[in-house]
Each structure stands twice: as C-alpha cells, then as structure tokens.
Amino acid sequence: MEIIILGPGCPNCSMMEELAKRAVKELGIEAKVDKLTDIRDIMKYTMSTPGLVINGKLKHAGKPCRLLTR
To answer: What pTM was computed for the model?
Structure first.
C-alpha cells in the first residue's frame, strides 16, 4: 500500500502525516508513507490541503479527517 500526505508543512499537514503513520502501525499493515510538499505536485491531486492519497487515489482533502483523530 502506498500512502501520500499532501501539504506544504503546516500543523494540519503534519498531524495528518502523524495520524497516517500511527494508523499503519496500529493496523499492522505494510505501507509506505510519503509526503509531497511541492505545490505543483500537490495540485496534481487537489487544491486543498492536507490531502490523503491511498494507492494513487485522493481519499481526503481539506481539514484533517475527524475520523482519524478519534
């Protein structure tokens, strides 16, 4: 599984990255978690950050996902 966090480095983007890594660890799945910070790369997926891309598909964009913070 490939997970990409989209964001320039703001606190919300950092939180999304941390939550994704925590979820991977807690679920015990094998996944590569990367982060894209270049706006040109981010715009290939969305104009809103933070973003969460799983296996090449945008799954979430905008405010941090509330489900991940519970």
So the answer is: 0.85
